[in-house]
Amino acid sequence: MKVLVLGARGQVGRELCRHSWPADARLVGIDRLGLDITHRETVFAIVTDIRPDIVVNTAAYTAVDRAESEPDAAWAANCVGPGNIAAACRRLGIPMIHISTDYVFDGTKSGAYREDDPVNPLGVYGASKEAGERAVRAVLSEHIILRTAWVYSEHGHNFVKTMLRLARERPVLRVVRDQIGSPTSAADIAGAIMQLAQGVTNGNAAWGTYHFAGAGAVTWHGFAEAIFDLASCWRRPPPRVKSITTADYPTPARRPGNSVLDCSRICAAFGVELRPWRAALAEVIEELGRHA
Fold this sequence. Notes:
Elements: E1 2-6, H1 11-18, E2 26-30, H2 40-50, E3 54-57, H3 71-92, E4 96-101, H4 124-139, E5 143-148, E6 151-152, H5 159-167, E7 172-176, E8 180-181, E9 184-185, H6 186-201, E10 208-211, E11 218-219, H7 220-230, E12 240-244, H8 264-270, H9 277-290
């Protein structure tokens, strides 16, 4: 099984490339410097040259707030790019796994979001990702779109690393308490993608859209408190984490109040198991502590 990973230097892409794949799997990772997915001819040329058994697209424009002032860049990376990849895959008869986001929803639902719930993104980032989903579906039937949420890891830019950095600078941190979601380790996403890729190459053609996130739900405030609790063994005393409302912390892009995803469909179709978000967080905190 030859797997082409696009966006190999992002959080999920890095974890995919260092994940323990079966011995018969060969990964080819390409980052943004190696391929600009918005250039259609280049995408076609590289996919044709590599001829993978499956393509995994983790490349994306993920700066949620900056997207409000850079909509063209967000739409190019999150909509045009996936459409180009899907078109190249269609020409060569290659299936594709594409990563999407909880931001396709507006967060007003009272329970966990299912795959068939209506989408209604609140900002440019979410709208561009939702358009990317439609671009993939319109071109390539042999696809899996994997929506996830609140992604973090020991590398890249994410909430966990931001909290630990700010804790070195400030005695008090203000974190919102009225947004809820499921923190998801990039390593766990990589593991789920590996299962999907194996299933697809072994003949499980359960194409479509799936949700995957850490098991359980928490507010951003609760997530921050968990970070400092787990990191207490290797860092100085934690800051005071003050709970605030979304209205107290205005941002250029609106966030969904509820980002909890119902992941039962992926569990049933591919046997993917969800790990409690706090257990996954503990592993990342431990890894960060080794390099502190």
